[in-house]
Amino acid sequence: MRFSPAGDPGTPDARSATRYLVWLAGRHPLLFGGAIALGVTWMVAQALMPAAIGRAVDAGLAHRDPDALVRWGLVLLGLGVVQAVTGILRHRCAAHNWLGAAYRTVQVTVDATNRLGAALPRRVAAGEVVSIGTADIEHIGSAVDITARGTGSLVAIATVSVILLTASVPLGLVVVLGVPLLMALVALLIRPLHRQQAAYRESTGELTARAGDIVSGLRVLRGVGGEPVLGARYREQSQALRADGLRVARVESLIQAAQILLPGVFVVLVTWLGARFALRGEISAGQLVSFYGYTAFLVSPLRNLTEAADKLTRGHVAARRVVRLLRLAPEFTDPARPVAVPEGPGELVDVRSGLVLRPGRLTALAATAPEDAAEIADRLGRYADGDVTLHGVPLRDVALATVRERILVADNDAQLFSGALRTELDPHDRGDRRAVEAALVAASATDIVEALPGGLDGPVAERGREFSGGQRQRLRLARALVADPETLILVEPTSAVDAHTEARVADRLAAARRGRTTLVCTTSPLVLGRAEHVVFVEDGKVVAEGRHDELLVAEPRYRAAVSREEDR
User: Fold this and answer.
1) Rounded Cα distance, 428 and 449, in Å
2) C-alpha 417: how far from its chain's center?
3) Residues 390 and 487 grouped into a single domain
4) Would strands 348-350 and 355-357 be described as parallel, antiparallel, or unpaired?
5) Rounded Cα–Cα distance for residues 378 and 491 (Å)
6) 181 within domain boundaries
7) pLDDT, position 392
8) Same domain, 129 and 192
9) Do 151 and 184 lie in a common domain?
């Protein structure tokens, strides 16, 4: 089941964040409801203990009745057993609810990022997603977890209020009126806390995104001397985050103080009033003991309620961030009535540029501007909107899953993930070891595997940071070849390797993709010279086609573009 908040798909409102928390709680209704029922039983058992002690004092000790003392002692023992058992079970249910809410949030977040696909980096900062997966899931889990203790505390306070009203109307009214007053005082701190936490959460996401950008571009920054400038900006933003954190801490410290001070004052007041009533003979000694027990007990549910207000506020702030991500719609969705595409290779045509990819051929696309080639590749892979047809069928009318299955676009923005190298090269486990090894040979990447401890079963660090830029590029090419799609589009697959390696890759790529449709976007003469067909693009339009040597002679603009590549 996927959460889809109702309303406008823009900025989420408070209601949608609340609905998201309710949706999480409803994912496991038995455990969530069981935790609340156990929490109520657990707190009420504690609330009844002072009454049992008071009855033991009045009926057993004051009247010197051993049987009554034993009877009420057994009642007290029974309440203790109920409290212990329900407390253990409540905690287990609460822990399950916490984990369920936290990691369900991870699942829906990952699902949302998958739906956004290539549009994710343009729509959401990396720091935002990281913050959801680290800080926000903890707050959301705690918000769902606290409901059991919070509900139990409310029922326990109501139970104590009824008992006190029955024994003494003035003391009962003190509790009935005092508890809402205490909660109102705490509520005065909740709104500024909500505002400060939202600002702090926003600053955290921005700083995390900046840190990721700096780390990913550290080599370039050092090369151009930009490290001190970016470092200074990071320190400035970090200090701003620190200031936001201090503002949150000030409000939180007031709430923490209120959790101790206000219940303490309340306990003192009820105890003082009960002692005065006992001295005037309006209540018995056992009732005085009970009243003192009630006031001592009330500290726990009152603190639980203030803690619940704090955690629900934090969870609400975090839920709004999650809902904002979930509301982002992907740039491309499946058509209402997808059209089937004939099986087998067919012509892939980009109407805007005039490019025609004929099936079973290795085609190279050389463009005077690299961004023109990238835009054409995005349109062919349905990552950008355009008039593109496959077998004469517009890609707009084809299900996205079908497009992704039959057309693969591999560019240098693709990432390597942590895990075993073989899993990284064949994440869907579609090919056998022989296919993986053949792809490594074609990508001239066997030396990388040989140098890696464990070979294909060796671990790859996050983003493949132990590899050089050229090694990562060759591994990405090998991964694309293992996938073996019907149509493979490669964008500058050899831009980061040396000339000797590039020549080997160019020679082997044609053999590896023989009989399959392949487009290589490049201006490298080594690759262009081995292509079966070359298409030259200028200003986003196809202006010449033919073999590499033919275009060198017949098209001066092509010759100029290729010569620039040779001069590098």
Assistant:
1) 20
2) 17
3) yes
4) antiparallel
5) 10
6) yes
7) 93
8) no
9) no
Mind listing the pLDDT tens digit for each residue in 431-453? Answer: 678 889 999 999 999 999 998 88
Domain boundary among 299, 329, 359: 329
Tell me the average pLDDT of the chain: 83
Angstrom distance (rounded) from CA 209 to CA 205: 6
Domain shared by 25 and 98, yes or no: yes
* Lookup: tokens for 290: 């009970």
Cβ atoms 528, 548 nearer than 8 A? yes
For 489, phi then psi, to 5°, come to -115, 115
Residues 149 and 174 placed together within one structural domain of the fold: no
Residues 521 and 353: their CA atoms lie apart, in Å, by 14
Looking only at Cα atoms, what is the longest distance across the chain? 119
At 188-215, the pLDDT tens digits run 766 676 667 666 766 776 666 666 665 6
Strands 487-491 vs 533-538: parallel, antiparallel or unpaired: unpaired
- Judged against a pLDDT cut of 70, whether residue 424 lies above it is answered with yes
Q: The domain containing residue 315 runs over which residues?
A: 12-168+309-329
Q: Do 34 and 141 share a structural domain?
A: yes
Contact indicator for 297, 175 with CB cutoff of 8 Å: no
Segment 480-523, tens digit of pLDDT: 999 999 999 999 999 889 989 999 999 999 899 998 999 999 99
Q: What count of other Cβ atoms lies within 10 Å of the Cβ of residue 111?
A: 13
Tokens of 441: 């040979």
**Could you tell me which residues come within 8 angstroms of residue 235 by beta carbon, excluding any fewer than 6 positions away?**
none
Look at residues 389, 375, 399 and name the one whose alpha carbon lies nearest to residue 489.
375
Q: In 3D, which of 532, 535, 498, 495 has the Cα closest to residue 513?
A: 532
> Strand, helix or coil at 337?
coil
pLDDT tens, residue by residue, 338-362: 999 998 889 999 999 999 999 999 9
Least Cα distance to 322 among 69, 63, 111, 27 occurs for 111
In a domain, 392, yes or no: yes
- Let me know if 47 is exposed, middle or buried by CB neighbors in 10 A (0-12, 13-18, 19+): buried
Q: What is the pLDDT of residue 60?
A: 67
Tokens encoding 361: 């051929």
Rounded Cα gap, residues 103 and 198, in angstroms: 22
- Tokens matching residue 109: 């977040």
Q: Do residue 365 and residue 270 come from a single domain? A: no
| More confident: 381 or 9 | 381
Kindly state the average pLDDT of the residues 42-59.
85
State how far the Cα of 204 lies from the Cα of 541, in Å rounded to an integer. 44
H-type helices in 168-226, by residue range? 169-216, 218-224
Cα gap 31→18, rounded to integer Å: 20
* β strands within 479-516, DSSP E: 487-491
Whole-model pTM? 0.65
Q: Are strands 459-460 and 533-538 parallel, antiparallel or unpaired?
A: unpaired
**How far apart (Å, rounded) are the C-alpha atoms in residues 223 and 339?**
51
CB 193 within 8 A of CB 310: yes
For 549, residues 6+ apart whose C-beta sits below 8 A from its C-beta are: 529
Residue-by-residue DSSP string for 248-280: HHHHHHHHHHHHHHHHHHHHHHHHHHHHHHHHT
Exposure b/e, 306-320, CB count within 10 A at least 16 = b: bbbbbbbbbbbbbbb
User: Could you give the residue ranges of the DSSP H alpha helices within 125-168?
Assistant: 126-131, 137-167
